[in-house]
Amino acid sequence: MGTPGYAGRILRIDLSSQRVDELATLEYSDAFLGGRGLAARLYWDETRPESSAFDPGNVLVFATGPLAGVPVIGGSRWQVCGKSPATNPHHFSYCNLGGRWGASLKFGGYDAIAVRGCSEKPVYVLISDGGASIRDASHLWGRGAIETREALTAELGEAARVAAIGPAGEKGAVMATILADQDSSGSGGLGAAMGAKKLKAIVLTSSGRRAEVARPEELQQLIEYYRGLRRLPLKASTYRYSDDLVPSFGRVKMKKAAPCYGCRGCTRRLYEAEDGRKGKFMCASALFYQPWVVLHHGGWKDDVAFHATKLIDNCGLDSKSIDHTIGWLYACFQAGILTDEGTGIPISRAGSPEFIEALTGKMARREGFGDLLAMGIQAAAAQVGPDAVRLTRNVGYLGMPEYELLYDPRLYIPHAIFYATEPRLPMSQLHEYGVLMPKFASWARGEPGAQAAPGVIRAIAHRFWGSEAAGDLSTYEGKALAARMIQDRETAKECLVLCDMVWPIVDQENTADHVGDPALESRLLSAVTGREVDENGLNRIGERVFNLERAIRVREGHRGRAFDQPPGRCFTEPLRFDQVNQDCVVPGRDWQPISRKGATLDRQSFEAMKDEYYRLRGWDPGTGLQTREPLVDLGLGNVADDLEARGLLGH
Ligand code: SF4
After folding, report:
1. Structural domain boundaries, residue 522
2. First to last CA, the chain
3. Are residues 179 and 145 in contact, defined by beta-carbon separation less than 8 angstroms?
4. Which atom of ligand 1 is nearest to the CA of 259?
5. Global pTM value
6. More confidently predicted of 449 and 149
7. 168 shares its domain with 71
8. DSSP letters of 574-610?
9. How far apart are alpha carbons 402 and 554 in whole angstroms?
10. What pLDDT shows up at residue 256?
11. Pocket test for ligand 1, best of 223, 232, 263 (most atoms within 8 A of CB)
12. How close is the Cα of 149 to the center of ligand 1, in Å?
């Protein structure tokens, strides 16, 4: 059944007929590896393009990768893919979660679960040593995601791993999340697709604890090599809750949180409030409410921010979307378009506990004005009126539009391609330039210990992005190739599934050249599975999956060139700010530090970069549509046939 790296089976559940059967993982893993790749192929095969996210025909796939359950640092994350209601029209999307649920799925004998259909009554799926069963969840319907997790672990044992939705998912809020163990949450609106199926949770209780590895000694050597490259597994070093700053949280306890399965840990913190409530404190979800708290209270109050994070997790709402919602509500309030009385939400007290309680409660239950907000701010604004629509641009950090564009394309030019070609915020793609360049800015400021000097950037640009020119961010030269290489590598990463907090190793501290090692992921894959895949081979899998996802989107209504656009204001409004690289400093000509403050994207240069990008991908530059030969070369001949039959193949 199983082969090294794989449990060998995919569980397929039809909630309409309550039927359960299995597929062999091998049918998918050779070409698509696991995680997002395996899920995208299952989705292509099983979801009709005209299905809405809420239709029984929308197949939701929960998938691990070949490294899950193996003590590879950051290797046990997992993916959920399916059609999401977050976009209009609904499109294929994805999210990525951590904790222990993914490893437990593999220990329970499955690499993935594909769920189609809709149950008549609320259910949860239980995978135990006795196999898979569909159980009544009527007693859980209406309860929060955290409450559901607690109720199911009380019922089935502390070792049970639960992925659940809150009331927001049940009610179809387009920003509904899926919440798993260790407060790991998945965004992208897929919680609403789960709710439409009346699927409250998937629970894993199997006692298995072993994942087979083909060459354990080689794997151990690679893990040691990894540890030698990095003193710290860092991506989020720029966030405020680094170790140095923990004491600033005062009377509230904060300690290192348990890492995801098999990992060493990172900036995850376990927050313990005075009332005894505990929870993960990490990344954007931990901090989304702080700026509003500062606005209202005149200073940081982490207990209020923690309360807000727990509230949205329990409701099953996405912090980034709620942050944008608050930004838009506040802008409308200041413009006199919306009032506390008219909405039933105390907008004037944004940043207070009572505001976030009213907002999230009304959105999750879809009560009053919350019903409108649960459709997303674009849809809500369209109902409120043209002035409110104009203010949807000001939906970020305290109404500052720049914050919406994390790692802004005006600052890092290749990011314009990512924003133009992805169905959601392409976070992992943004992290190669977006994490390295602030380190260059530190070097430019002369900070002690800063290692990202021009020579380092030049070598990294050559090794990771295809040319030295890719490191000069004053021009468009080399950026199309850099974008393509990053997309392929990052897509392969999400097939493995490796954590974005620590992979890839673009730069590193402990060698003379400080250049990272992009071949390490493929060597890990080979050691775990016994299948020889080198760096190019792994990137080729990423390219295949990226092309498959492009075909899915085109089949679902994306129209190529005309639709491949970053947000319009990148062309018209000068860059003023960046959350991480505050002075917007990047390498320019001759590797001199320059600031991109005041820069816009040049329309003509962007379109020329797109031409080059399409050519590099073998797509039709005229239409941006894929063409037959590259798809066939990637083993996607049947995808080319399908697109051709629909008139969606380029020339
Ligand atoms: S680096 Fe952090 S978030 Fe990533 S897998 Fe490890 S513990 Fe989880």
Report:
1. 415-645
2. 43
3. yes
4. 7
5. 0.93
6. 149
7. yes
8. -----SSSTT-EEE-GGG-EEE-TT----HHHHHHHH
9. 29
10. 67
11. 263
12. 21
